[in-house]
Task: inverse folding
């Protein structure tokens, strides 16, 4: 998308994403794909005043900035430098990383720089790259004209499960490690649970996993290996804030471990079925590969997870289209307590303890498929 904005001479592009979502990696990749016809200015220090920012841009243009110049004079000097480069067949690219720290006045002046034309052609392209706070800043009414001219806007979300798999295998292949180790497919949902699909966290976790495997002379990466690395890192599932709670007695803990849990599935105020939770991690969604499959068009292929981590059970949304709700509030991740009502699509799932032992896989009469279309006929 950065190349598209450059080729089309759109003048300005907005790229946002949370910390660790891959913004810097995308910038680096973009810079490897442009030729010598471009003059690149890249700034990542943005804790600056308006004047300091434009002085820094001038320095990157090999121009001396007078410390007594006004912001308007600095802006004019920058435009003159860009015009001079344009005459030499050089298009100027200005990349502002961490742009969420900029003030509104700086953003407006950068917008004005990006709109300068020669013979009806924009002579520079400004890329504003930052965290979600940048979008909040741009919601200010004073920059409405500025926003309306941004034709290319892109938000980097977290990687989906299939993309996490591709990402890890690609990086392993590039490093040559695919010849030395093999990876079980079961590890990818675990990686997703603890990284939230953020490339930076994936890199940290997988690097730790591979280091552990090397030290232990392990050639096959299994969930056991990943769990050992997670324990070593002392990570919680992504989005869970660490809280120090009063330790439970050993007797209480043993009693809780003997308890089994289930979800009761309701739709149209009718019980459609129940699902016993037999594993530390179950997935809920419309696709047949899910542990609990609910055939509802408002539910995503892979919609949510229920995860047991130590003594706590969590619900986690898997970037679903229509969201996962607890107590009518959309959540990314939330702890579950007995009686919690989860809303997914047209269904309510009540999380509760089982009053009897969970049936085994062989003797259970409960299907893992809930077909809402069929139950409505």
Result:
């Amino acid at each position: 998308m950065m190349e598209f904005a450059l080729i089309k001479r759109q003048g300005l592009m907005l790229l946002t994403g949370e910390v660790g979502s891959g913004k810097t990696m995308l910038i680096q990749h973009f810079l490897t794909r442009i030729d010598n016809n471009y003059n690149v200015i890249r700034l990542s220090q943005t804790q600056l005043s308006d004047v300091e920012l434009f002085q820094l841009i001038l320095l990157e243009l090999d121009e001396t900035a007078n410390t007594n110049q006004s912001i308007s004079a600095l802006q004019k000097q920058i435009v003159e430098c860009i015009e001079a480069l344009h005459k030499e067949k050089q298009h100027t690219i200005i990349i502002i990383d961490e742009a969420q720290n900029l003030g509104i006045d700086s953003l407006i002046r950068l917008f004005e720089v990006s709109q300068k034309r020669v013979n009806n052609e924009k002579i520079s392209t400004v890329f504003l790259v930052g965290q979600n706070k940048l979008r909040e800043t741009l919601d200010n009414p004073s920059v409405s004209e500025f926003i309306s001219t941004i034709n290319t806007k892109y938000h980097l979300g977290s990687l989906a499960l299939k993309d996490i798999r591709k990402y890890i295998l690609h990086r392993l292949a590039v490093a040559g490690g695919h010849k030395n180790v093999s990876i079980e497919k079961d590890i990818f949902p675990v990686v997703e649970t603890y990284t939230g699909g953020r490339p930076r966290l994936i890199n940290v976790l997988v690097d730790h996993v591979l280091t552990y495997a090397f030290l232990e002379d392990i050639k096959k990466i299994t969930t056991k290996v990943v769990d050992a690395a997670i324990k070593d890192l002392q990570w919680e599932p992504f989005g869970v804030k660490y809280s120090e709670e009063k330790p439970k007695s050993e007797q209480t803990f043993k009693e809780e471990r003997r308890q089994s849990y289930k979800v009761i599935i309701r739709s149209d105020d009718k019980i459609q079925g129940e699902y016993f939770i037999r594993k530390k991690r179950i997935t809920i969604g419309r696709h047949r590969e899910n542990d609990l499959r609910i055939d509802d068009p408002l539910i995503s292929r892979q919609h949510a997870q229920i995860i047991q981590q130590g003594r706590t059970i969590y619900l986690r949304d898997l970037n679903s289209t229509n969201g996962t709700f607890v107590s009518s509030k959309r959540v990314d991740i939330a702890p579950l307590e007995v009686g919690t009502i989860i809303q997914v699509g047209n269904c309510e799932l009540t999380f509760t303890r089982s009053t009897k032992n969970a049936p085994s896989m062989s003797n259970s009469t409960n299907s893992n498929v809930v077909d809402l279309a069929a139950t409505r006929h």
